[in-house]
Write a structure and sequence with these properties.
Layout lengths: L1 H13 L2 H16 L10 E2 L5 E2 L2 E3 L2 E16 L2 E8 L7 E5 L3 E9 L7 E3 L20 E7 L5 E6 L6 H7 L2 E7 L1 H4 L11 E9 L15 H4 L5 E4 L2 E2 L1 E7 L1 E8 L6 E5 L5 E6 L2 E9 L1 E4 L4 E7 L6 E6 L7 H5 L7 E12 L21 E10 L8 E4 L11 E4 L2 E9 L5 E5 L5 E5 L14 E4 L4 E8 L4 E10 L2 H5 L3 E7 L1
Parallel strand pairs: 1-15, 2-6, 4-7, 6-11, 12-16, 15-23, 24-27, 26-33
Antiparallel strand pairs: 3-4, 4-5, 7-9, 8-10, 10-11, 12-13, 13-14, 16-21, 17-20, 17-22, 18-19, 18-21, 22-23, 24-25, 27-31, 28-30, 28-32, 29-31, 32-33
Bound molecules: CU-O-CU linkage and copper (II) ion (2 copies).
CU-O-CU linkage binds next to strand 8 and strand 32.
């Protein structure tokens, strides 16, 4: 192990590209990983069950249990996992804008954890971040009002510095928020029938079937990546379409891997939504790229009756030679869609979906700079991950923001790899990337934004309500190994 790592480190430091490619392809694909997707027969796609909660005194109440479980991703092979109200992942929580919600979260995973509502705008005390730790055997109860546009959000562990391993083992689930404006639209909305959530997660397995999770170099630097893609926990899933159009809600729920996603026949599809809501208008494309924590809603037309495969393509913007060296030119099957001979007609997708304010940079009262950095003896497994030269400190408030103000946050990346920066509390807008206006898929509401090496991305954020001088919200890289290593900061919203 030591000599293998030393050799790899030597190659990374200055070795030849060709040799490194061969070496690491063997490293990732043959030595390290006990299973590949080919070991599985295609299976029907698992659809997470829906939890609508229970109305108690007018409050929609969800009882959630973090628990240990055993899952079979490969037939006859047991994998120890974590889940919420189940063995792996959690139920899809459905709620409506304007509702009051209570979450009761009980932790039985044998170590402290948290449950964070990613993308939701709520008080810091309810955020489920690193300051709302739930000890083993304890229950954390919190309440908030749903103040969101309709979209797909998610929840996951946010335990410093164990978010990476806990999410990897399964502590994540989806949130569907609905609202009036969206309900009026003629979009596919039948959950599991023509409105399908897809949680994409790459995983690596040991020969005994257990999850392989490593934070040694290169997994620390690149983030933990696996060679098997799970979709809602299913390896090699297929889905039978009973309608001419299918709405897919994609979440990149991986710890670190970026995916560029499209269909194997190159067909166009319509993107209708981003992280925090629908786009103003759908737009046609053939590929989208999702970094960890990013979401997209797309509509695919299968009225030609032909089976089609959703797959990933080698990601151009995860940059660098390093990716190829790490075996990251892997392409994955995501989902085989098999149209049923009897299909229901689907409505035309409206040209206009919702309306959003034009982002107006002149409203900003100030600009804050955030510089994402990787440094130190990275190759030797040391290394530092920081924002503005600081690694995460639970006892330090990095930024103080005034409520009811609009700000520009300028994110700069001086490191060699792209980082998906996520900001709690707000759904923001992207003003520009190196001065260039955002692509159509990024013109809507976002809570996570990829910042490429040497890129400067300007965001417009509005901080409305929920002041709390003592409890911070987080901003961080959503490559979970980077987050756990300290690429995270804290801000408070004050009166
Ligand atoms: Cu998805 Cu701070 O988290
Ligand atoms: Cu979040
Ligand atoms: Cu990062």
């Amino acid at each position: 192990m030591i000599s293998r790592r030393a050799t790899l480190a030597g190659l990374l430091a200055g070795g030849g590209v060709a040799t490194a490619g061969v070496l690491t392809n063997r490293y990732t694909r043959q030595w390290l990983f006990g299973f590949s997707a080919n070991a599985a027969e295609p299976k029907s796609l698992a659809i997470p069950k829906v939890l609508t909660g229970e109305m108690r005194n007018g409050v929609r109440t969800y009882d959630l249990g973090l628990q240990k479980g055993v899952s079979q991703f490969f037939d006859g092979v047991d994998t120890a996992t974590l889940g919420i109200n189940g063995a792996y992942l959690g139920p899809t929580l459905k709620m409506r804008a304007g509702e009051n919600v209570q979450m009761n979260v009980t932790n039985k995973i044998g170590e402290p954890s948290t449950l964070h509502w990613h993308g939701l705008h709520l008080p810091a005390r309810a955020d489920g971040g690193p300051h709302q730790v739930i000890g083993e055997g304890e229950t954390w109860s919190t309440t908030f009002t749903v103040k969101q546009r309709a979209s797909m959000f998610w929840y996951h562990s946010h335990m410093v510095p164990r978010t990476g391993p806990q999410v990897y083992q399964g502590l994540a689930g989806l949130i569907y928020v609905e609202d009036e404006e969206t309900s009026r639209l003629d979009l596919p909305v039948e959950y599991g029938v023509d409105d399908i959530p897809l949680v994409l997660q790459d995983r690596a397995f040991n020969g005994d079937g257990s999850f392989l999770y490593s934070t040694s170099m290169p997994s620390l630097m690149m983030g933990m990546r696996g060679n098997v893609l799970l979709v809602n926990g299913t390896v090699r899933p297929y889905f039978e379409a009973r309608t001419n159009k299918v709405r897919l809600r994609l979440l990149n729920g991986s710890n670190a891997r970026f995916y560029t996603i499209g269909f194997d026949d190159g067909r166009t599809f319509q993107q209708i939504g981003s992280d925090g809501g629908l786009l103003e208008s759908p737009f046609k494309t053939t590929q989208i790229t999702l970094a960890p924590a990013e979401r997209a809603q797309i509509i695919v037309d299968v009225s030609d009756g032909q089976p089609v495969r959703l797959r990933t393509f080698a990601t151009p913007n995860s940059g660098m030679m390093m990716d190829r060296m790490m075996g990251d030119d892997l392409a994955f099957e995501v989902l085989d869609i098999i149209p049923n001979a009897q299909r229901a007609k689907s409505p035309e997708i409206p040209d206009r979906l919702i309306s959003l304010d034009q982002p107006d940079a002149t409203k900003a009262v100030r600009t804050r700079r955030f510089v994402l950095e990787m440094g130190g003896m990275m190759m030797m497994g040391g290394g530092s991950f920081s924002i503005n030269g600081k690694t995460m400190d639970m006892n330090r408030i990095d930024e103080t923001v005034r409520v009811n103000t609009t700000e520009i946050w300028q994110i700069e990346n001086t490191s060699m790899m792209p980082h998906p920066l996520h900001i709690h509390d707000v759904q923001f807008r992207i003003l520009d990337r190196n001065g260039v206006p955002p692509a159509p898929g990024e013109m809507g509401l976002k809570d996570t934004v990829v910042v490429a090496p040497r890129e400067v991305v300007k965001l417009l954020l509005n901080f409305s309500d929920y002041t709390d001088p003592d409890r911070p919200y987080m901003y961080h890289c959503h490559i979970l190994e980077h987050e756990d290593a300290g690429m995270m900061g804290q801000f408070v919203v004050t009166a």
